[in-house]
User: Fold this.
Amino acid sequence: MSSLSGNIISKSAEILSKYPLCSRCLGRLFAKYGLSLSNIARGNAIKTLLLMELHRLIINDVRNLSLLKGISENVGVMPQLISKYLGSTPNEKKCYVCSNTIEYVISKLVQDMVSELSKFKVRTFIISIRKGSEIERRELEIVSELNLDSWESIRRELKRELGKKVKALLDIEPEFKHPDALVLVDLDTLNVKVTTTPTYILCRYVKLGRNISQVRWVSKNGFRKYPLAVEDVVEPITKSFNAEKLQLHAVGREDVDVRVLGNGRPLVIELKGVKDKTVSVEDIAKNVVHSDLILTFFDRYIEHKHLIDIKSRRSSKVYRLLVLSKKPLSSDSAELLIREFSNRAVRQRTPTRILKRRKDLTHVGRVYDIKVMAVNEYLLEILVKCDSSLYVKELVHGDGGRTFPNMAEVLNSELDLLEVDVIDISY
Assistant:
């Protein structure tokens, strides 16, 4: 091999003296070199140039025939030259990496991808090829043995070549960050599986009535505890997307007896198993169940990272409270509450009403602002701006001292909370 000059030629001769390779698999080992060349064209060029150089060496010194003999079964091109000097054309060995199946593999995978993708309405896709296939293992064996740094993996080449062909046939675009469809390929079995990514819709809901839950609340005996849920209103949009499943991700939650007014509560609807990814936001509302008590407003599509961001943000709320005192209140009660709770930290243990499903923990929330209006000597209307994590009901009655300070203690009166409304949520 020392008679051969040039790194690509000498390296190719070293490879082909041991491994039979088709032009695509050889070209892929030198993918770093040659602009705008396909791996087939690159491999053909390397083989042709290698045999031309061998021909030159043989003409100058017949003893170089040994070099030609060493690769004659593995090169697969220019049989006339081999026959001229070796007397006959040797049987060509199959490619060590792909066993001469790579073109069939590409053709079959494209056919299956088109067939599977045609079952969905998508605008973008990405191809993922499972690691660790037998064909990849053989390729890595050569790369490691010959210490090659100019190669690209067969997985990378196939994703590129398959992607171009699928794009041309279906007129859909490859998309690497947020694809509509994920095409999973197993090179050992040539199995193709298409899944669509979840669809996330940012919306808001306004709840004008009470005893309405976010999701359906079904008891152990199968009966619904509350007749209406936000889920009832939005779930039919699965028809728009031909989706399998819907899941709600609300920015916090309110008790079922609490209305949500103002701009409503932010809500992200996640749709799984979506077969139609081309639905516009304007078309979503067509399948919503219209209700006099629940209003929904669909804003835009978002990505999963935005869902995580929305749910992790610290938000504040403004509540409207209607509070009844068991005994007459003094004329300065409103001022007293404003003075005690403006920009005040509140220490709360987990409310007794939810201890069955939550751990008994202590946390500190904050009341930022409070406005109080005395309706009469027994009735107060209160606006409270506070952390979204603050238990506002317990802020009123104290929960047996588990919330401190609390309004009942400040006013020295037992307080009943008649109404709670969320009138603003910032996030």
In short: The longest strand covers residues 259-272. Residues 39-60 form the longest helix (22 residues).
